[in-house]
Give the backbone structure.
Amino acid sequence: MTAVTTQGSGPLSGVRVVELAGIGPGPFAAMLLADLGADVVRVDRPGAAALGLDPARDVTNRNKRSVLVDLKAAEGPGLVLDLAARADVLIEGFRPGVTERLGVGPADCLARNPRLVYGRMTGWGQDGPLADSAGHDIGYIATAGALGMIGRSDGPPAIPANLLGDYAGGSLYLVVGVLAALHHARATGRGQVVDAAIVDGTAHLGTMIWGMLDAGVWQDRRGANLLDGGAPYYAVYETADGGWMAVGALEPRFYAEFARLLGLGPDAPEQNDFARWPELRELIAARFKARTRAEWTEVFTGTDACVAPVLSLREAARDPHLTARGTFTEHGGAVQPAPAPRFSDTPVTIRRGPAIPGADAAEIARDWDLPQLTQ
């Protein structure tokens, strides 16, 4: 197979990143950096994939290259330190203290490369009573107060897959921190450690709502507020064929358009007559149940009513608007989200498929001047 470059595309072209293989938010953060053009070398461990997923199907490892290193072998830590000495960024997602015990912690790496940005991705953070405890997305967002905000008032909290904690509160905050620290390192010559914790990032995502809570315009319970399904004009409704429509008609002029197209009629309760919200919700629900999702989609598409069909993953990939924008793409036979965001001068793209563990040792040894990787 002809080697495919991992450099020369995107605003981070020329930035070198070492990723110590893990699961969840760490690999996704490294994928974001790779999508933006960074040369990401993933250090995989010998053995089967952690989640049992075929590495060729794990698209969070696209645009990366991989080398196998056994960190518990005598030569393992030295190989990682050699990579760190030539890198701009290192990302790891182990529990606190693990990389220190392995000999590739922040002090070890920064001693070799004082300009290095050392990004640490955990659920609970590097300190605190729970720092050494196991956990997953659902527990982190529960503790941060986010899970309790999501769902109907008369039911349990709704689980937003692992998007809110792992990827929004975790990966995105790690990438923001890494890029900020990289900017600082290039200006001052000093690297530093970035402690990205999912509980911190998830809590931070709620900043606006905390302000609303303090101002007395947000109730500390789900399904009772403007943006959590409490308002009948910011909610989801079932259609005649079992589909769903999402309504976000917040502003008065958008609500007026929504009410007209839905056919609420002049006797319907006013938008902000809070005492009659239950009545308004029942009326809106009855109207949506009268027609199919496709029929309502045709009614609302292209209007300012702020209504959209609730699509499945495969349906989203075929949506006309997203298709026109190229929001989804196909690479190596796999449909997947295209890199985002977009850049006018340094466009980003998928340059190669998922890194297969250990498959790129020769390339990396050549490009990073590390012949010991293949010895």
